[in-house]
Specification:
Layout (H helix, E strand, L loop, with lengths): L7 H4 L12 H7 L5 E3 L5 E6 L4 E6 L5 H12 L6 E7 L3 E5 L21 E2 L5 E3 L9 E5 L2 E6 L2 E4 L5 E4 L12 E5 L13 E7 L1 H5 L18 E8 L11 E4 L4 H11 L22 E3 L2
Antiparallel strand pairs: 1-15, 2-3, 2-14, 3-13, 4-5, 4-14, 5-12, 6-10, 7-8, 8-9, 9-10, 11-12, 11-13, 15-16
Amino acid sequence: MRFFLPSLTLLFPGLAVAAAGPSPAEIVAQAPVSAWHDVSPERLLVMKMGDGGRVLIELAPEFAPVHVANVVRLARSHQWDRGAIIRVQDNYVVQWRVRDEAAPLPKGFVAHPEAEYERPLAGLDYMALPYPDPYAAQSGIASGWLVGREGEEIWPAHCYGVVGVGREMPPDTGDGRELYVVNGEAPRQLDRNLAVVGRVLEGMEHLGALPRGTGPLGFYADPRQNVMIESVTLAADLPASLRPVMQVMRTDSPSFHDYLAARAARHDPFFVRPAKGVALCNVPVPARERK
């Protein structure tokens, strides 16, 4: 949809309009090669949907190394192949599982991981956001991931596109055979209550537009409604010619700092009054596929 707007000063004489500036999308499009880094194929999952759609997920071993290792083992033993999406709860999560939860577990799989819901800040680069966060004493970006912080402890935030591990009631932490992705308004109340194992870099449209489940909590009431997953493969295990190369913007780059400032105070012509602030989950770290 296009909007045709007359001059704001003609409509409202005396209104002070902020000087125009580039939009966040323009800043991302103009970012130099130096502003990007490649995602290692050892931490990139390629999910192929039954309808041919592709979803690319960057894993987060910095935050949940045992759960991430379990997910990788499941991918390498092909237990995700012919798995299914079993839950689509509107404005909350999409959840999927392996093909057969009773199948033997791959070698090295940890059946009952310890909770990996938060970690020490030490060892990660960190940049604080200067805006209040209702879910954390402070929020910011740690080594490229959106996080909450309290003292020296940090945790990944449940923002749109974040992938976590489904579990039963505590002390269960889930083992990785059921995963979910946030598909709406950030449910930050889940922070520090589940293990976050990654984020979708590309293909959320294939998950976010699925039919909503009509059973409790958005589960599909009839198993015939389940959405098939053709396969989930670690990018490193694909032939080089078929291996996608994803890039994520460096959060220590001038381009990202410009992008962050533009997200907090839009000065492109459509906006009348800059917000002068931004919520953590409204600063998604840009990603793109390198062709």
